[in-house]
Amino acid sequence: MATSFCFLIPLFWLISSAVKPSDQIFVFPQVWIPHPAEWNNFAIALTSLPFGQFALNTLAIAVLVTVGNVFSSAFVAYGFARFRFPGRNVLFIVMLATLMVPGQILLVPQFIMYYKLGWINTFAPLIVPAFFGSAFYVFLIRQFFMNIPPELKDAAYIDGAGEWTIFSRIYLPLSKSALTAVAIFSFQGAWNDFLGPLIYLNSQKLYTLQIGLTEFEGIFHSNWNYIMAASAVIMLPMIVIFFIGQRYFIQGILMSGTKG
Hints:
mainly alpha, 70% helix, globular
């Protein structure tokens, strides 16, 4: 309870500051309940830049990244969990070893590759890699697949089902918790991504919310109530998504770690 309260204090201060007059932001003692509450801070913050376009760009990227990560990672995880082939464990270890490679090391070679493909100032560098799977998500889903009794697959074989039918009609429906956890991770990562759009996007019409918020901070660098208002609105979808899917999210994380 005490730990939750400590985490909620910054959130409450953010929301409180979003509706404060500018002269109540940094006063001491701290003003927790603004007087008067200036709700027009949200209108001023969200109309000063095309945040509607930024939100559509971010939503498109986040949805496609989520779809790509969920299905590609599940497909690879099924192969590692249920197919027997030479070198399977070695390949799995090599895949996990890529998690130890810092992402900053790959920035320059990836930028050169995308530049030669003509993908700079497009959404492609932010979306296409998701359709090739993620090592962490493959590991998470694979651990969940290992908990599904193999007898289900054997019974499906006897009934004449192929691998695609078994994967799509048995393993995926039974793995909603793990897939939901991956979906939440993916959507949150894409929604909050700052470095990727900063590197690959140049036109304002393609900006995401995180880049738009940075540009907004440059314009209203001394108006923290407007900055807090914009930040609160941008953060709201993540809170809503987590509370909607928290049961599946927690169950997916717990179940994925019960068997190696």
